[in-house]
TrEMBL record:
Phosphoenolpyruvate binds at residues 48, 84, 203-204, 214. GO terms for cellular component: cytoplasm. It is found in: Cytoplasm. This is Phosphoenolpyruvate-protein phosphotransferase. It comes from Pararhizobium polonicum. Its EC number is 2.7.3.9. The keyword Heme does not apply. GO terms for biological process: phosphoenolpyruvate-dependent sugar phosphotransferase system. GO terms for molecular function: kinase activity; metal ion binding; phosphoenolpyruvate-protein phosphotransferase activity. Its cofactor is Mg(2+). The chain holds residues 236 to 528 of 528 of the full protein.
Amino acid sequence: AAVMPAGFDRSSPLGLPAGGFEVLFNISDISEIHALDAGACDGIGLLRTEFLLSSAADLANEEKQFQLYCEILKWAGGRPVTIRLFDLGGDKPLGGFGLEERNPFLGLRGIRLLLSMPTMLRIQARALLRAAALGSIKVLLPMVTFPGEVTDTRRIFEEEAASLAHRHVAISMPAIGMMVEVPAAAIMLDMFEDADFFSLGTNDLAQYLTAAARDNPTVADLYQQAVPALLRLIAQTVAVAHDMGKPIGICGDLAGDPEHLSSLIASGIRQISIAPSQLAAVKTAQMQAGMDG
Ligand code: PEP
Ligand code: MG
């Protein structure tokens, strides 16, 4: 039997932690939050900003982005809100990004695309720096592969913060973390000292581990079979993050599957971010395991 790490409730049948387990929401659409009570979650663990905007022009609209972030902060009522930078390209073609590539899932997407279009990145950084002055914001970088991408992005945030502060605009520097969804990043996690926190993206991680596209029904079965490989990699990654003293959570769909909750907890996961529609099933699994809330 597995050795139970410190902090676990040994009387619980599944060995679940006695407390300190956080459930946050993944949000892709502003209309979603109006139907939700913020009190039902511990905050937003993933705001997919590429789906908040309706046109390519919005990608250049700092004011519109700022207003959207403010609206979400207001809804969250002091709970933390993790906002992911535009994850464009691949399966998320707002503005036409990715569509012209032969292999968009393996192309210029996520943070690679943003760093290649720094004007767009700087606009989003300014909107986020301003919103961070008004609430608890964390910034999440999509599709990070190498540590330099985090360092370069952080430098851009620092430059924009300095120039806004120079103009006496109220700002705050948010924590900057990264998605762990590219295998090279998961394997080399200890190299990412520049990231303040980690969030495992099991949807893309499964896709890149199995070489099976997440949107291709022909290979959906392979993608499903990725769970054991994912769980092993997650356990290794969580252990490294703990050694580094950095927070790590999961925001991919695996986190909202009650079947795997006890495995994730046994790996040391203490924070999951799930689709709001998965909350009832996850809460039921938590209760059955004697770990309420
Ligand atoms: C993921 O890849 O697991 C993830 C949470 O992000 P997205 O589904 O938006 O790619
Ligand atoms: Mg992803």
